[in-house]
C-alpha cells in the first residue's frame, strides 16, 4: 500500500471517529466476529440488512445466522428470495403484493436491533459514507434500528469529495448522462441535535451507535 | 420605528427565560472559537468559490429550472410551479386530499413558514407534526422559529421540559437525554403513522433533478422516506447546476452553522421510490414514497432577482452564521423581529417576501456593525443592502417630520449645524455636571441618558483652536489635512489637538480645512441620500483646499463614509465622482497614518503599562484595519491584553441609541463586560464615537477604567515621559 493510500484511510478513520462513529478495520474473515461482539455486548438479536455485494461475498448472513442472530434482507428482491416458501403472494396485482411486502418489512425495521448497510463510497476528508437505494430500504435500515453498522470495501474510500462525485457519475451512468438512485444518503458520524440546551452530543432521532467496518479485501 | 416594535424589544430584553436561553449565543469563548475554526480551513477561498457559484446559478436560473424539470420528469417526479403562496398551499392540499392524507410529518422549512403551509393544512383538518426537535418545540409552544437553524434557541431546558410534559401527560425532568428520548419515541410513531411527508430543501440540483435536505437529527431522511407521498417545497433561490456546485455549498453550510465539516445526514432524493423486484408493466414503487412532488415557489424571489441591489439576498444559504454573530440578535430573539426571517438578512427578505413597510422596523434594528458580512459564507453585504433599503423607503415614503427637520433642516446646512452645536454648551449647561458630563437629559433624551452619560459639548470647538495651528507649507513635508468629524470637533477638541502634536512630531505639515462639515453618515444610514450627497459635495470641496497628501480622521465612521460612500453617492455625476475617488485615496486613519509617516521608527522601551484595545466596527470590518493600531501601541511601549470579543460593536452604531436606547444599552453592557474581563485599567480605541459610547457606559457603572483614543494615549505618554 502506498503512503497516500494509507494516509487516506487514516484520515477517514480520524474524521469518522471525530464525528462520533466507531471505526473498525477488518480482514474479510473478521467482519462477522466484530458484528457478533457488538450484538452480544448489547444483548441484541434481530438484524436487518440492505443490499450488499460485500456481505454476500464474505457470506456474512450465514455466519451471523450460524451464531444465533436473526438476519433479514430488506431489499424487496432479496427478501422475497429469502422468505421463499414462508410467505405466499396473495394477489395477482403486483402493486398489492409490493404493499404487503412493504408493510411486512416495515415491521422488521421497527423491531430490529441492528441495521447493516454497505456504503458505495467513503470520503476520507469528512469521514462520510455514501449509501444509496431506489427502494428507500437503505435509508430505513440505517435509521430505524437501535444500532447501525456500515460495511465498506477499503478500496472504495476516496480522499476528497471531488473524487466521490466523479465516482458517483461513473457508478450511476445512464443514457442521459447519469441518474442517481432515488435515495442517496451522505452519512457522517452519529446523529445529534443542538435543539435542547446542554447536550450537543446527545443521540437525536437516529440510532444510538454508528459503527463502520472497513473491509480489507486482499 | 413603530410602537409595536418598541414594545417587542422591551419585552424581549426583560424576558428572563429568553435572556437565560440566549446567553448560549453570548459565551465569550464562542467568537474566538469560531474564529479559530475559520482559521483551520481556507474560508476566504471557499467563500469566493461559493459566491461565484451562487452568482452564476441565480443568473442562469431559468435554464436550471428547465434542466431540473427534464431530469425530474425522467425519474417520475412531479414538478409544479406555483403561481403564488396561496397557489402553492392549494396544490399541496390537493395532493393530500387525492391521497386521502390524514397525518403529515414535516421537516424544517422556512419557506413553508413564509407561506403558512402548516396552518393551511391544519385548517383543512390534517394533522401536521414538525419533526425537527427544535421546530417541534416551537410548534408545541404555538410560536414561530426564533433562529434560522436553531428554531427553539430561545427556550430554556425547563421550558422544554414543561412543553413535553404537557404533551405527554407525564412529568419529564429538565435533562437533555430523557427529553430527547421522549421526542424520538413520539416522533418515531408519527413517522410510522404519517400518510405524507413535507420538507423544505437546502438546495436543488438541476442535472439530476435532485433535492437535498441536510439534518443532524435524521428527521429529514425519515420524513422524506417513510410516508407514501412526499412533497418538497423549493424556493427558486435553491437551484444549483450540478454536484460540483452543490459541493461548494456543502463545504461551507455546516461549518458556518455550527463548525462541523458536514452535517450528519445529507439526504438526496432524486425520484419516487422504485423497485424491479416483481415483474410489472409499469414501474412499481418500493418502500418509500410512491409519489414525489416538487413545488416551486416564487413569493417575491423573482422580483428580488431583477434588482441589482438586492439580488444578492438570494445567495443566502440560510446557515445562520450572521445571526450568531449579530450583537443585536444576541439580545433579542428571532420572534422580536416580527416576521419569518431575522437579523439583517431578515430585513431584506422581509421587504421582498412580505412588503417594504413590514421591513422598515426590522431594518432599524441593524447597527451597521458588519459582523454578519464578516462571517457570511457567500459574502453577502447585508449592511449595505440595508442602507439601500432605507434609502428606497425614504424615496418612496419620505422621512418622518422630526428626522426631516434634523437631517434636512440642520445637518444639511453647515451654518445651521454650526449654530446649533455652538449654542448647545450654553443650552445644556443646567444638565451638565462639574466634570463636564451630562448624566440626566430631559425629554426624549432621558431614556438615552439612562444607558450612558454624555460629554458636554465644548465652547471652543477644534475648528476655533486650530485656526492658529494652520502652518504654511514647507517643501518636502507631507501635507496632512485634519478631518475632525463632529464628535472630535465639538465634544473632544483636546483629542484633536493631541493628534495634531503627534502628527507634527511625525514630520507632517498639518492644517484644518475650515469649510469641512458633518460627513453625512447619520443622514446616509437613515436613508436620506439627498442630504448625504449635498454634505459629500461640501466636504469634497473643503478637503481639496491646499492639495493635501493625506486626510487624517479620528472616527472610522467618517472615514468609511468619505472613502467608500462618497464615490457611491456621486456615481451619477462623473466630475464629482472623480473628485470623490481622488479624495478616497487620501483618507487615512490616525494610527495608520502615524505608521505610514514613520515606517522605520524603533520600538520604544516598555512602559510597563497594560492596555486593552477595542476594534471599532468601521475600522476593522469597514476599512480592514486592525493590525495597525495594535502595532502602533506595541511600538510605543504598551502591552496589549486582548479582551474577548474585541471586535464586537459597542452599541453606538446606526440610530440604535436614539431609537432603542434600552437595546443599545444592552449591547453596550456586553461590550463593557468584555472590557472588564481584560482586567486592565485602560481601554484604547481608534474611534471618537466608540470613545463617547464607552466613556458614557463606564461612567454609568462608576467604573475606574479609562477610555482613551490612541491619539490621547500617545500624547499622554509623551507628557509623562517629559515629567
Computed over alpha carbons, the radius of gyration of chain B is 29 Å
Assembly annotation: heterodimer
Q: For this structure, what is the CATH homologous superfamily of chain A?
A: NagB/RpiA/CoA transferase-like
* Mean pLDDT value of chain B: 91
Give the overall silhouette of chain A.
globular
Instruction: Write down how many β-strands of chain A occur, each being a DSSP E stretch of 2 or more residues.
Output: 12
Q: Strand count, sense and closure of the main sheet of chain A?
A: 6 strands, parallel
Our estimate of the beta-strand percent of chain B is: 5-15%
CATH architecture of chain A: 3-Layer(aba) Sandwich
Largest interface: A-B, 62 and 71 residues
Low-confidence stretches of chain B: none
Please identify the top-level CATH class of chain A: Alpha Beta
The strands making up the biggest β-sheet of chain B line up spatially as: 1-10-7-4-2-3
Number of domains of chain B: 3
What is the third-level CATH name, the topology of chain A?
A: Rossmann fold
Strand count, sense and barrel status of the largest sheet of chain B are: 6 strands, parallel
State the helical fraction of chain B: 40-55%
Sheet-strand content of chain A, in percent, reads: 15-25%
What does the overall shape of chain B look like? elongated
Describe this protein's structure.
The complex is a heterodimer of chains A (218) and B (723). Chain A is built from 8 helices and 12 strands. Chain A is of the alpha/beta class. Chain A is globular and about 55 Å long. In chain B, α28 (556-569) packs antiparallel against α29 (574-586). Chain B is α/β, with parallel strands linked by helices and 723 residues long. Chain B has 36 helices and 20 strands. The mean pLDDT of chain B is 91. At the A-B interface, α5, α6, α7, α8 and β10 of A face α5, α9, α11, α12 and α13 of B.
Amino acid at each position: 500500500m502506498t503512503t497516500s493510500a494509507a494516509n487516506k484511510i487514516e484520515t477517514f478513520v480520524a474524521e469518522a471517529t471525530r464525528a462520533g462513529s466507531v471505526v473498525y478495520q477488518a480482514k474479510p474473515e473478521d467482519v462477522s466476529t466484530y458484528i457478533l461482539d457488538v450484538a452480544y455486548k448489547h444483548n441484541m438479536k434481530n438484524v436487518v440488512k440492505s443490499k450488499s455485494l460485500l456481505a454476500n461475498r464474505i457470506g456474512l448472513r450465514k455466519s451471523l445466522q450460524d451464531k444465533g442472530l436473526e438476519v433479514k434482507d430488506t431489499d424487496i428482491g432479496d427478501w422475497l428470495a429469502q422468505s421463499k416458501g414462508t410467505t405466499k403472494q396473495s394477489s395477482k396485482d403486483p402493486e398489492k403484493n409490493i404493499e404487503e411486502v412493504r408493510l411486512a418489512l416495515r415491521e422488521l425495521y421497527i423491531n430490529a436491533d441492528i441495521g447493516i448497510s454497505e456504503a458505495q463510497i467513503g470520503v476520507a476528508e469528512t469521514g462520510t459514507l455514501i449509501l444509496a437505494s431506489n427502494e428507500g430500504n437503505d435509508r430505513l435500515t440505517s435509521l430505524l434500528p437501535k444500532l447501525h453498522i456500515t460495511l465498506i470495501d477499503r478500496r472504495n474510500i476516496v480522499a476528497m469529495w471531488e473524487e466521490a462525485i466523479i465516482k458517483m457519475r461513473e457508478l450511476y451512468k445512464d443514457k442521459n448522462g447519469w441518474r442517481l438512485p432515488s435515495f442517496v444518503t451522505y452519512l457522517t458520524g452519529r446523529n445529534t441535535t443542538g435543539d435542547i440546551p446542554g447536550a450537543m452530543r446527545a443521540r437525536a432521532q437516529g440510532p444510538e451507535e454508528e459503527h463502520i467496518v472497513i473491509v480489507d479485501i486482499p | 420605528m413603530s410602537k409595536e416594535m418598541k414594545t417587542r424589544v422591551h419585552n424581549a430584553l426583560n424576558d428572563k427565560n429568553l435572556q437565560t436561553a440566549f446567553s448560549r449565543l453570548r459565551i465569550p469563548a464562542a467568537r474566538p472559537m469560531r474564529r479559530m475554526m475559520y482559521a483551520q480551513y481556507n474560508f476566504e477561498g471557499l467563500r469566493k468559490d461559493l459566491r461565484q457559484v451562487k452568482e452564476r446559478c441565480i443568473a442562469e436560473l431559468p435554464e436550471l429550472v428547465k434542466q431540473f424539470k427534464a431530469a425530474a420528469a425522467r425519474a417520475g417526479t412531479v414538478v409544479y410551479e406555483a403561481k403564488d403562496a396561496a397557489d402553492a398551499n392549494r396544490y399541496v392540499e390537493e395532493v393530500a386530499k387525492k391521497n386521502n392524507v390524514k397525518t403529515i410529518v414535516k421537516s424544517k422549512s422556512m419557506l413553508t413558514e413564509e407561506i403558512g403551509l402548516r396552518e393551511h393544512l391544519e385548517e383543512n383538518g390534517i394533522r401536521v407534526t414538525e419533526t425537527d426537535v427544535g421546530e417541534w418545540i416551537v410548534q408545541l409552544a404555538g410560536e414561530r422559529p426564533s433562529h434560522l437553524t436553531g428554531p427553539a434557541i430561545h427556550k430554556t431546558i425547563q421550558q422544554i421540559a414543561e412543553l413535553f410534559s404537557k404533551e405527554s401527560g407525564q412529568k419529564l425532568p429538565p435533562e437533555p437525554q430523557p427529553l430527547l428520548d421522549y421526542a424520538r419515541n413520539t416522533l418515531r410513531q408519527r413517522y410510522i403513522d404519517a400518510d405524507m411527508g413535507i420538507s423544505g430543501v437546502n438546495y436543488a440540483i438541476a442535472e439530476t433533478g435532485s433535492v437535498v435536505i441536510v439534518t443532524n437529527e435524521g428527521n429529514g431522511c425519515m420524513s422524506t422516506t417513510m410516508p407514501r407521498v412526499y412533497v418538497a417545497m423549493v424556493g427558486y433561490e435553491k437551484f444549483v447546476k450540478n454536484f460540483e456546485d452543490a459541493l461548494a455549498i456543502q463545504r461551507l453550510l455546516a461549518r458556518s452553522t455550527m463548525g462541523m465539516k458536514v452535517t450528519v445526514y445529507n439526504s438526496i432524493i432524486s425520484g419516487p421510490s422504485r423497485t424491479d423486484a416483481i415483474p410489472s408493466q409499469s414501474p412499481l414503487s418500493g418502500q418509500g414514497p410512491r409519489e414525489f412532488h416538487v413545488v416551486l415557489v416564487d413569493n417575491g424571489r423573482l422580483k428580488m432577482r431583477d434588482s441589482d441591489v438586492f439580488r444578492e439576498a438570494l445567495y443566502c444559504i440560510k446557515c445562520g452564521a450572521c445571526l450568531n454573530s449579530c450583537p443585536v440578535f444576541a439580545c433579542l430573539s428571532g420572534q422580536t423581529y416580527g416576521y419569518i426571517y431575522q437579523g439583517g438578512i431578515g430585513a431584506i427578505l422581509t421587504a421582498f417576501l412580505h412588503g417594504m413597510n413590514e421591513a422598515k422596523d426590522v431594518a432599524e434594528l441593524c447597527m451597521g456593525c458588519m459582523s454578519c458580512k464578516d462571517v457570511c459564507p457567500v459574502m453577502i453585504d447585508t449592511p449595505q443592502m440595508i442602507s439601500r433599503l432605507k434609502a428606497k423607503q425614504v424615496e418612496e415614503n419620505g422621512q418622518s417630520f422630526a428626522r426631516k427637520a434634523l437631517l434636512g433642516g440642520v445637518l444639511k446646512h453647515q451654518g445651521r449645524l454650526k449654530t446649533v452645536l455652538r449654542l448647545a454648551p450654553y443650552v445644556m449647561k443646567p444638565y451638565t455636571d462639574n466634570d463636564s458630563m451630562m448624566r440626566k437629559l430631559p425629554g426624549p433624551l432621558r431614556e438615552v441618558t439612562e444607558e450612558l452619560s454624555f460629554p458636554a459639548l465644548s465652547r471652543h470647538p477644534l475648528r476655533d483652536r486650530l485656526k492658529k495651528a494652520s502652518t504654511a507649507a514647507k517643501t518636502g513635508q507631507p501635507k496632512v489635512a485634519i478631518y475632525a468629524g463632529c464628535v472630535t470637533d465639538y465634544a473632544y477638541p483636546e483629542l484633536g489637538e493631541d493628534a495634531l502634536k503627534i502628527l507634527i512630531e511625525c514630520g507632517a505639515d498639518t492644517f484644518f480645512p475650515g469649510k469641512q462639515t458633518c460627513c453625512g453618515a447619520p443622514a446616509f444610514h437613515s436613508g436620506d441620500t439627498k442630504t448625504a450627497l449635498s454634505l459629500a459635495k461640501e466636504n469634497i470641496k473643503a478637503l481639496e483646499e491646499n492639495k493635501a497628501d493625506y486626510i487624517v480622521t479620528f472616527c472610522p465612521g467618517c472615514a468609511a463614509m468619505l472613502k467608500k460612500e462618497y464615490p457611491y453617492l456621486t456615481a451619477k455625476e462623473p466630475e464629482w465622482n472623480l473628485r470623490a475617488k481622488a479624495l478616497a485615496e487620501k483618507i487615512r486613519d490616525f494610527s495608520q497614518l502615524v505608521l505610514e509617516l514613520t515606517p522605520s521608527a524603533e520600538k520604544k522601551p516598555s512602559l510597563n503599562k497594560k492596555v486593552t484595545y477595542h476594534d471599532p466596527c468601521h475600522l476593522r470590518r469597514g476599512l480592514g484595519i486592525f493590525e495597525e493600531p495594535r502595532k502602533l501601541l506595541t511600538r510605543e511601549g504598551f502591552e496589549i491584553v486582548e479582551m474577548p470579543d474585541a471586535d464586537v460593536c459597542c452599541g453606538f452604531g446606526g440610530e440604535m441609541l436614539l431609537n432603542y436606547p434600552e437595546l443599545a444599552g444592552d449591547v453596550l453592557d456586553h461590550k463593557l463586560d468584555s472590557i472588564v474581563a481584560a482586567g486592565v485599567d485602560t481601554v484604547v480605541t481608534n474611534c471618537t464615537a466608540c470613545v463617547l459610547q464607552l466613556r458614557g457606559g463606564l461612567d454609568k457603572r462608576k467604573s475606574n477604567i479609562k477610555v482613551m483614543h490612541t491619539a490621547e494615549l500617545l500624547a499622554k505618554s509623551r507628557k509623562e515621559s517629559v515629567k
